[in-house]
Amino acid sequence: MPDKLSLPLDDLLNGLRAAGEATRVRLLALLRQSELTVKDATTILGQSQPRISRHLKLLTEAGLVQRFPEGSWVYYRLADNAQGGLVEAFLSRLDEDDAIVARDRERLDAIKHAQAEAAAAYFRAHAEVWDSLRTFHIAEDAVESAMREALGEEHFSSMLDMGTGTGRVLELFADLYDSGLGVDTSHDMLRVARANIERAGMHAAQVRHGDIYSLPVTGQRFDVVTFHQVLHYLEDAPGALVEAARVLKPGGRLLVVDFAPHELEFLRTDHAHRRLGFSHEQMAGWLEAAGLELVSVRDLPPPAERSNDAGDPLTVTLWLAREPGVSSRSQVAAQPAKEVA
Predict the structure, then answer these.
(1) Whether 15 contacts 62, CB under 8 Å
(2) Predicted pLDDT of residue 254
(3) How far apart, in whole angstroms, are the C-alpha atoms of residue 268 and residue 315?
(4) pLDDT at 148
(5) pLDDT, tens only, 267-285
């Protein structure tokens, strides 16, 4: 049986021809470390935009590289396929101490450092919003611990985080998946997420600009899909759940984390919340309509001391659902949990 590096003769020859040029080898070596835009590549290699674009076009046509449009920018990444495996195989023979390769790597590091600084500045500028909201509910580390408990510690292949924001959920589960993808509509937040992914060395994770009602994941299915504090921003929360269910593998799991019903109207007027929380019954109905089975519901009320000074404190709720096409073994292993009032 062919392994994942096996290629038909024509594809192998096309890949070798496309890679067989000095600038393109340098580009592939850079893309092995990090996804890049044309602007990044021109800065690192010191070549013109048309020339870099031409090289990337040839690499893309040969299947060695994938391109991901994001607004007016396009990100390039090594292909996650047999051609990408071919690149990994021959780049493994490249001397990392070669003067040209080392200089390219230094320039890449400088660019990533500048991008990380810009992302940190953006986050600092908006941190007051997140910090103020955290005073109204249980500490975030307790929420994250509950999320880990909900999904368990068993390894899975693929994960999709809807409305990924800073990419924190991808980082939280990075030790459990082989590949993770975050999707968001905010270019600013994606810059933060990319910087965080780079800082954490999360080579199995990536983020993409995209509409969560129409995901940019043609043909892909996922073992786990997550919504972390996202649905209350959406005009059509049920529609987003239907789209999430569409890309789940048979037996795949959906984890939704959001607020229980509350009366903090300022979150709607000042912070763009479209919905003031979700009831157990409401979410159960939406999940059923999306073709999913509700596995468990867990409420995380705020600590008592916050109830005294926060006025109307927020309860965080976790809903775990699954795509029903599961084996009998999985059905036994994932019996519905008792709700926590």
Answers:
(1) yes
(2) 98
(3) 17
(4) 97
(5) 777 777 778 889 999 899 9
Residue 129: Cβ-neighbour burial (10 angstroms; 0-12, 13-18, 19+): exposed
Q: Distance of CA 34 to CAs 103, 183, 206, 330, Å?
A: 15, 18, 10, 37
Cβ-Cβ contacts under 8 Å for 226 (sequence gap 6 or more): 147, 159, 160, 161, 162, 169, 254, 255, 256, 257
pLDDT at position 330:
42
Distances (CA, A) of 288 to 81, 223, 292, 322: 35, 19, 5, 10
Least confident residue range of 273-277, 294-298, 299-303, 336-340: 336-340
What distance in Å separates the CA atoms of residue 240 and residue 212, rounded to the nearest whole number?
6
Separation between Cα atoms, residue 61 and residue 53, nearest integer Å:
12
DSSP string for residues in 165-230: TTSHHHHHTTTTEEEEEEEES-HHHHHHHHHHHHHHT-TTEEEEE-BTTB-S-TT--EEEEEEES-
Q: Is residue 183 a contact partner of residue 291, using CB atoms and an 8 Å limit?
A: no
Distance set, CA 88 to CA 1, 32, 34, 85, 238 (Å): 21, 8, 13, 5, 41
Check if the beta carbon of residue 180 is closer than 8 Å to that of residue 197. Answer: no
The DSSP 8-state label assigned to residue 334 in this structure reads: T
The pLDDT tens digits for 66-77 are 887 755 678 898
Tokens 């599961």 found at = 326
pLDDT computed for residue 2 by the predictor: 41
Which residue carries 């590289």 as its tokens? 65
Using only the alpha carbons of the chain, give its radius of gyration.
Answer: 22
Q: How far apart are the first and last CA of the chain?
A: 53
Whole-angstrom distance, CA of residue 23 vs CA of residue 38: 13
Tokens for 126?
């908006």
Q: Which two tokens stand for residue 6?
A: 């096996």
Tell me if residue 277 falls in helix, strand or coil: coil
Average pLDDT over residues 177-197: 91
User: What does pTM read for this prediction?
Assistant: 0.70
Question: In whole angstroms, what is the distance from residue 307 CA to residue 137 CA?
Answer: 9
- How far is 301 from 70, CA to CA, in rounded Å? 38
Output DSSP code: residue 231: G
